[in-house]
Amino acid sequence: MEEAFARGTGSIDEMYHRHVVMLYRICYLYVKNKYDAEDIVQNTFIRLMRSTMIFESLEHEKAWLIKTASNLCKDFHKSWWQKTVGLDSIAEKGKSFEIKEDKTLQKILSLPKMYRLSLYYFYYEEYKTEEIAAILQKNESTVRSYLHRGRKMLKLELEESKNEVS
User: How would you write 80-135 as a 3-class SS string?
Assistant: First the structure.
């Protein structure tokens, strides 16, 4: 069965272990709910299994997974269920992925969506602005503006929290 899923850069199992934490973080940035993020990551890998895509490189594989996960997150926000049921009000129980979150990541998560995504892709996933532009379907100059404004907002947030501690 494993060989049936073989791709240009490895098996589904290898791809999963290579990208699951990154995809979870990205999905969490979009939906801000660990259970929905887990579901979307799972659906991303289901799409991968159903796909006949053969990847040219690890970067191509990573970009395809990020784009698919991002599109699923956007579809999630458009869904009837999300608009009628406020899942944020339900108490979270159970075990999920454990992600080490530093203070900076917490501040990034509190920023508006486009700044949050741009900063995350740039600093945590080490994408270039042109690659981020392709993922977000924005102009490169727009992404650079998001990064610039996001850095300013992040700097203010970090200075405020530093002053609160002092």
Answer: HHHHHCCHHHCCCCCCCCCCCCCHHHHHHHCCCHHHHHHHHHHHHCCCCHHHHHHH
pLDDT of residue 1: 34
CA distance 23 to 48: 13
Q: How far apart are CA 126 and CA 98, in angstroms?
A: 21
To the question of domain 1-96 being in CATH 1.10.8, the answer is no
**Per-residue DSSP letter, 9:** T
Please give the single-letter amino acid code of residue 147.
Answer: L
- At residue 8 the predicted structure's pLDDT band, cuts being 50, 70 and 90, is low
Given this structure, which CATH class describes domain 100-166? mainly alpha
Distance (Å, whole) CA 146 – CA 153? 10
Residue type, 13: D
User: Which one-letter DSSP state was computed for residue 7?
Assistant: B
Return the domain boundaries, the chain.
1-96, 100-166
Question: Tokens standing for 86?
Answer: 């406020």
pTM of the model: 0.60
